[in-house]
Write a structure and sequence with these properties.
The structure is a single chain. The protein has 173 residues and is mostly helical. Helix content is 78%, strand content 0%. The protein starts with a helix and ends with a helix. The model has no long low-confidence stretch (mean pLDDT 85).
Amino acid sequence: MSDLGAFFLHFLLLCSMAIGGLSVVMPDMYRYVVDERALVTPRQFADVYALGQAAPGPNALWVPLVGLQAAGWPGAIAATIAVFLPATLFSLVAVTLHARSENSRLALAVRRGLAPVALGFMFASGWVLLRSAEHGWQGYALAFAATLAVLFTRLNPLVLLAGGALAGISGLI
């Protein structure tokens, strides 16, 4: 199988398991393109993830950027199809089944069971991004302060993003 085919298949399988959004499978995408295949550097991965999150539009914009960085335009197209195909099919099936039996025991069990799984995956994604940022102790301190602010205040996340941008522009991190 070609490298592009392996890339597409890996991302397709990961996106088929992305319960809670793409950020939950981001650690394995990172492992595949950075650690296993060395298609992008840790810094490039963190940069395209940040760019994709900052851009207006779907939260999944970072994945085609990883594909673009890893394999050019064919990689971007493969990553885009791999991201949206499973989510679209799963959404169609889930909406159809939910409309038929919203309060069934199975529907309630699935909703209750997937919430902690998605939360754990999101924490794993945050950990991978924190490790790949390479900003020394200042970056870790800023990330820790931002985490505390999110958990214990009602501060708008845009204020935290602006604070991080100012810290980067001023050379603190």
